[in-house]
Amino acid sequence: SQYFYYASCAMNCIYDCAYCYLKGMYPSAHIVVFVNLEDIFAEVERVLEHHPLYLCVSYDTDLLAMEQIIGYVQEWSDFAAKHDNLKIEIRTKCANKTYVRSVNSVSTVIYAFTLSPQAVIDAYEHYTPSLAERLSCAAELIQAGCPVRLCFDPMIYMPDWKQHYETMLEQVFHVIPMEKIVDVSV
After folding, report:
1. Strands 16-17 and 125-126: what pairing?
2. How many whole angstroms separate alpha carbon 137 and alpha carbon 101?
3. Which of 1-5, 49-53, 122-126 has the lowest mean pLDDT?
4. Which one of 93, 112, 127, 151 counts the least CB within 10 Å of its CB?
C-alpha cells in the first residue's frame, strides 16, 4: 500500500524470542500498554480524511497474545469496521482460541501469523505457541471468514534447516486452505 503506517498501542512482548529486536529497543523489559486508544483512533481518523491507510497495530508487541487482558484487537476490529478506507494488520504468533471462537469477521482486518518450523520455535521462540497451535488458530480464522496472511519470517539457519522448513511447509499445506489466504510474506 502507498500509505503504510504502524501504531504502537503497547511496547514489548509477553514472548521471549531470542532474535527479537524488541529486546534491545527500549530501556526497560516491562510491557507498557498505552491507555489512550481513543487518541490514536482520533489521529487515524484525521489521516483517513486525506487518504486511505494500511495500519499495522501489532509490530512492537503481540496484541492478540494480550487480548484477554487489554482487549485492543477487538477495539481495533470494531474501529476498522466503521472505515472503508482503513486496513488493519494484526501480526501474531498467538493461538488465542478464545478470541478466535468469538471473532466477528471484518474484511479489512488481516491476521498475519508468523510461522516457523517447530525446531526454530523450540530453540528461539520461547513461550510461544507451537506451529500446530498457530496453524489451527489461523485455519479457524479463515473458516470464520477472516483475512489471514502467512509470514515465514524470520527464516533462521540451523542444522538440518532444509528438512525443518520442508516439514513445516507440509504441515502448513495440510492444515491451511491456501486458496483462501490473503497472501504470504517471506
Report:
1. antiparallel
2. 9
3. 1-5
4. 127
